[in-house]
Amino acid sequence: MADQSPAVETVNPVDDAINHLIEKFGAAVQRDTRDGYSGVIVDPAQLVRVGRYVRDTLNYEYLANAAAVDYLGKGDHLEMVYHTYRVSGGPALVLKAQTPREDAVLPSLVPVWPGANFQEREAWDLMGIRFDGHPNLKRILMWEGFAGHPLRKDWKEAYYEQDQKPFDSRWPGGQVSRSEEHNAYGKNVKYPDGFTLDDYESLAEKAIYDTMPLGVDVSADISTDRVVVSLGPQHPSTHGVFRMVAAIEGETIRGLEPVMGYLHRNHEKIGERNTFLQNMPFTDRLDYFCSLSNNLGYALGVEQLMAHGARWEAPSRRAEAIRVLMVELTRILNHLVAIGFMLNDLGAYFTPLMYAIIERELILDFFEAVTGSRMMCNYMRFGGVAADLPASLRSTANQVNDRVREFDTMQYLRELIHDRLPRAVDQTDQLLTTNEIVTSRCIDVGILSKEDAIAYSAAGPVLRASGVPYDIRRAEPYSLYPELEFDVAVRYHGDIYDRYLIRLDEMRQSLRILKQILPILEETKGQSFFSGRGGIYSPRVPAGESYGRAENPKGELGYYIVSDGGQNPWRYHVRAPSFINLTALEQMSKGNKIADVVAILGSIDIVLGELDR
Amino acid sequence: MYGSGILRGLGVTLRHLVNTYVEDIRWGFRRHIPNEAFPQRQGLQTRGIFTVEYPDEKLAVPERFRFIPFLVVENYDHPERPGHDWCTSCGICAKVCPPQCIWIVRGTDPVTNRPKPEPEEFFIDIDICMNCGLCAEFCPFDAIKMDHDYELASYDRTTAHIYNKQHLSKEFNYWKAIAPTRAEEEAQARGGWDHKDVIKQREKEAKAQAGGPTRPTVTGP
């Protein structure tokens, strides 16, 4: 197994790339020399040129993340951070561009990386950076009757109490009051200057309909009008409150725009008010099917920062084994349910989904006994996990409930991993893979080419089903993955059927990993599960930036965290795979029938908790 | 053959259907004898559908299950300090709480006007509480614990959902009943079944009496 670990390169490829950039662009590119930071700061005037060079010549062709940071009081500028990767793996080349807070403008990188589209709209919406040359720059998560850009440090929410938690009013003189009783605006909403609700006509709606390619197509045999159809927000196939506006000609999609933000709660602003530890339970609420994977990504991000500080110990082998166990079980349950929901969208009314949920129940029973909660697990800590695996999965009869179960933990896991789950995967395979309705609805529908998948920053199963074997567990390994034996699943057609098949493949690979984890769990029994000191609720996180990324079931989940050395993160950005995978939705849908759009959306596997944040 | 895939899939559904009835017949009336049927039917061995008929049947939750916190108070039949708060109003739970749903009024001694280690008032707004369990995890006195009672429906959220100290307090025996293993682990870490401060006090007295350190033993309450 040792030969599987990535070879240690003597020359840091990123350093090499940075030297190239400096040589080529001279003063327009400067190393980021701030303490704890990495990458280069690019002159905005040269940003697009540098981006092209980075993509084409240096081969950093995958833009994983684009996040804006407000450095109010720390230089008073806004900064846009781009994380670019090579598809062959390796660390990030980080590009940064700065702009003053007043009249913030940067050139758009959409012409270079189409995957920046939604992320730049998000940065405009939440941070107020205008992007020159963006094809469709308007708010994405908020509506246009919203005052200000909420992620700016001087913006305060309706129920604003204090910049940072813990709030002083809670202790020692904690007289209870509900926040509805006193809020900053007197009422819940604040409108921009000059905005009235009387004779209000939504500009965003107008903009959506205006950009749709309408008109009569006379080239076809029968000339048909193009009409705009709004699917959602309340629609059972959108997996939540999500809307697609589609321009159709007959039944064929000619243009499509996702409209989102109905579940937006500004997770990132809440994250900046929270202390580092307090964010952990909030990450559960992102992709609520995979709370343990979300926990892991966040823990990795903060641990990267903490590793620079004194008194840091990496998590023990047992802690890492438990983490891998949890996230791989999460991957299996997510893929089972994702396939179930996708079949729902195809019209297989709930049978595959319910079979998936039976198996999911059994995994959730395990999660519940270990972490204390079925879905909102809040289990990972910086330096390990919150608690060791219990000796037995026992429920106790008490005053409240009486139906008791007791299983030995390791026995339960062994049966689950060696017997029950493989059977469940095979059963799904048997139930669906050769089903003629599934094949005729899925094969060659919703194709995303390899080039497009990379350009649109697609991640996870969507990327790998298009023939790009990019998996962070291999490309930039973390935790125990370097020593575990598994293959990166890849399929080459990029259609719905391949996105279905790849989930089956990944479940089988996860089972392979889990089978290797069981002996590690046995052999590390009794080791500590947490490397930090107990009882520290406000760990010291040194100043700097970090980008923690984990291969979530839905794709790359990244946390871009900036710490100023205090007990709260200065910036906490979530790169949500569901959100960014949707950038390619229009590309996949064009030319297909409107009924297929529902199936395509199902095959991307979105979760609104993460999409809208 | 075209259609064979559909038939194969139907075979799977048929198997599920048959298995469900087979299980029902196999267990028959014993389904209602919880200790026998539940571990089998609600476990990995089960085949077919395994629905729990809530609220007629309620699955017991595992020990670590966490719902709205409660405050541990001394057992009501405790010889010395029945119903005394374990909480010392140190405020750690209020500081670590992610949604900031805990309000504590620290007690003051009426004579000396200095803070004293017990809460005057303790509120939890259960509408805001996200059941993360951080308060229980970081409480140094084992005084706040996560409950197992998840049926909290009420008619008025504005008044009924702010729990005060009286509503939150439950005696230590309750914690022992819902989480025996963990209660025992914690008692071992504290050095006895009593409150940390009581054990310390007792140790001090024993030391003064015997003139040397003695180790407290874990005894039942």
The sequence of SSEs of chain B as H and E is: HHEHEEHEHEHEHHH
Unreliable stretches of chain A (pLDDT < 50, length at least 5) are: 1-5
Can you summarize the main beta sheet of chain B? 3 strands, mixed
* Class based on secondary structure composition and strand pairing of chain B: alpha+beta
CATH architecture tag of the domain at 310-396 and 403-527 in chain A: Orthogonal Bundle
CATH topology of the largest domain in chain B, what is it called? Alpha-Beta Plaits
Q: In CATH's first tier, which class of the largest domain in chain B applies?
A: Alpha Beta
CATH class of the domain at 310-396 and 403-527 in chain A: Mainly Alpha
Radius of gyration of chain A: 24 Å
For the largest interface, the chains and their residue counts are: A-B, 73 and 70 residues
Mean pLDDT of chain B: 84
Main sheet overview of chain A: 5 strands, mixed
Strand tally of chain A, please?
20
- Percent range for β-strand residues of chain A: 15-25%
Number of DSSP helical runs of chain A: 19
Mean pLDDT of chain A: 86
Residue share in helices of chain A? Answer: 25-40%
CATH superfamily of the domain at 310-396 and 403-527 in chain A: Cytochrome-c3 Hydrogenase, chain B
What CATH calls the topology of the domain at 310-396 and 403-527 in chain A is Cytochrome-c3 Hydrogenase, chain B
- The CA-CA distance between the termini of chain A, in Å, is 39 Å
Number of domain modules of chain B: 2
